[in-house]
């Protein structure tokens, strides 16, 4: 289906108001009742997602929906998550961004037991740290685009702390998604939307071999509705609206903008930033989250969505409607901008780098896995036995050398890290669990080895992880 045809089905291109289809609620009004719980149930089963009135797809989700339910927990208060698997294959639920033991983290590579087909398993852990986290399947997909994070198995997870996050009039949880993936050798690459950063890892001689198939999509949504098919976010002038964004894509880094408004970024991956700043465009790699508030000071009816026309027209957007405004939703291209993590950081101290130094060199082998590309870390295939050995309590600097022509969202399980350098710029105070390293770029992050047990590192693009872009960090003296 052509993107413009899909947009007509969703109702926006024709200027109609098909907003009677109520989107799944991810609205939690500030100051509302405390809904944090200590026991949850997630049921894995087939679900249908009505992206638009004439566009319904079938996938696998949690509790009959995709995204799954918003899970609210209290920091430091033990919880139980009961997972019931009603499918014919084993499954894993990964609790992304939490500092929890490897046996409940939800990764086969770390030794988490699977949830067997037509059976159940309980995850028991103490949630930490406070902030916007999420949960999702962590199974391999390989050639099956109906498995893993290509499905609808994902949802927001919020860990409430003692600090008041601020006085906001509304709060919304918005997950960016792509649907109906397919293999292609002509996938749209949005890495170049931002200006090119320094490329210290670019080889002097580029690999000119024919690349393998990549995964692409033409159909998108925010939460479970394509642009124009769900209820708008209704606001009043002067309101401060908090948005919790999540890139739940399995495929691509994404950008979002809201014409005439700025995003006041206060947290990255759920962790407060040292220097909150206002920006025109947000960029999120798969797995990343951004907490940003917007002052509603431009009355009208606007589209909050992807700056790239094909992506927005394919459904990645939502309507923002001011009170007493009844006009066709408007989109205008945002000012040219640069996504730069370091503007949210602080100047680094004069302290020397951590004593422990680890390097990871990433390379792509065109068609290294038959018709697909494969990836190596330090020239080797997974699992890199005993290569990345950690000493409990030690501080490490992990340097990523991206010698590929993609910008990769890199995720470290069960630990948070502090960005020490990226784009050739030193910085401090930016705490994350996933970071996008630019094409042919380099980045260094610091972390403390304070979570004993096997620790998975991987690119959060599903196909890249499946075909070798991962490594296992182990603690000295441990089982793994």
Short recap of the structure:
The longest helix has 8 residues, at 3-10. The protein is 5% helix and 41% strand.
Structural commentary:
There is one protein chain. The protein contains four helices and 33 strands. It is mainly beta and 480 residues long. The strands form eight sheets. Strands 22, 23, 25, 27, 28, 29 and 31 form a seven-stranded mixed sheet that branches. Strand 1 and strand 2 form a beta hairpin.
Q: How many beta-strand runs?
A: 33
Instruction: Name the average pLDDT.
Output: 91
Helix content: under 10%
Q: Approximately what portion of the residues adopt beta-strand conformation?
A: 35-45%
The assembly state of the depicted protein chains is: single chain
Rg calculated over all Cα atoms: 21 Å
Structural class: mainly beta
Please tally the helical runs, counting DSSP H or I stretches of 4 or more residues: 4
Q: Estimate the global geometry from the Cα principal axes.
A: globular
Give the termini distance in whole angstroms: 48 Å
**Low-pLDDT stretches:** 13-34
Q: Largest sheet at a glance?
A: 7 strands, mixed
């Amino acid at each position: 289906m052509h993107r413009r045809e899909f947009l007509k089905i969703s109702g926006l291109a024709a200027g109609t108001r098909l907003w009677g289809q109520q989107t799944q609620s991810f609205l939690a009004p500030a100051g509302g009742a405390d809904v944090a719980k200590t026991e949850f149930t997630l049921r894995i089963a087939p679900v249908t997602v009505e992206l638009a009135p004439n566009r319904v797809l079938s996938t696998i989700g949690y509790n009959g929906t995709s995204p799954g339910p918003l899970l609210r927990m209290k920091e430091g208060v033990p919880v139980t998550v009961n997972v019931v698997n009603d499918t014919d294959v084993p499954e894993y639920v990964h609790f992304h961004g939490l500092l929890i033991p490897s046996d409940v983290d939800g990764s086969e590579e770390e030794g988490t037991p699977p949830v067997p087909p037509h059976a159940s398993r309980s995850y028991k852990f103490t949630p930490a740290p406070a902030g916007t986290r999420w949960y999702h399947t962590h199974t391999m997909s390989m050639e099956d685009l109906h498995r893993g994070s290509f499905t609808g198995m994902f949802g927001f997870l919020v860990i409430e702390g003692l600090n008041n996050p601020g006085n906001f009039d509304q709060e919304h949880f918005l997950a960016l998604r792509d649907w109906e993936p397919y293999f292609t050798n002509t996938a749209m690459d949005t890495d170049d939307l931002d200006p090119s950063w320094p490329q210290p890892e670019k080889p002097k001689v580029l690999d000119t071999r024919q690349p393998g198939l990549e995964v692409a999509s033409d159909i998108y949504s925010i939460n479970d509705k394509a642009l124009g098919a769900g209820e708008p976010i209704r606001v009043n002038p002067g309101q401060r609206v908090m948005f919790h964004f999540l890139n739940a894509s399995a495929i691509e880094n994404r950008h979002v903008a809201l014409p005439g408004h700025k995003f006041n970024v206060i947290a990255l991956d759920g962790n407060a930033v040292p220097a909150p700043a206002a920006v025109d465009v947000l960029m999120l790699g798969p797995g990343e989250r951004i907490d940003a508030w917007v002052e509603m000071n431009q009355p009208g009816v606007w589209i909050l969505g992807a700056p790239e026309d094909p992506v927005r027209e394919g459904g990645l957007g939502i309507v923002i409607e001011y009170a007493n405004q009844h006009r066709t939703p408007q989109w205008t291209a945002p000012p040219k901008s640069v996504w730069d993590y370091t503007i949210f950081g602080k100047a680094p101290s004069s302290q020397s780098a951590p004593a422990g130094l680890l390097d990871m060199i990433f390379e792509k082998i065109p068609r290294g896995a038959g018709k697909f590309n494969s990836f190596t870390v330090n020239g080797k295939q997974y699992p890199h036995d005993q290569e990345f050995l950690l000493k409990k309590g030690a501080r490490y600097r992990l340097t990523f050398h991206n010698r590929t022509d993609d910008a990769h969202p890199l995720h470290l399980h069960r630990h948070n890290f502090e960005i020490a350098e990226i784009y050739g710029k030193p910085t401090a105070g930016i705490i994350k669990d996933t970071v996008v390293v630019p094409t042919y770029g380099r980045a260094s992050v610091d972390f403390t080895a304070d979570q004993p047990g096997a620790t998975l590192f991987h690119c959060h693009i599903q196909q890249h992880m499946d075909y070798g872009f991962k490594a296992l960090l182990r603690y000295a003296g441990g089982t793994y």
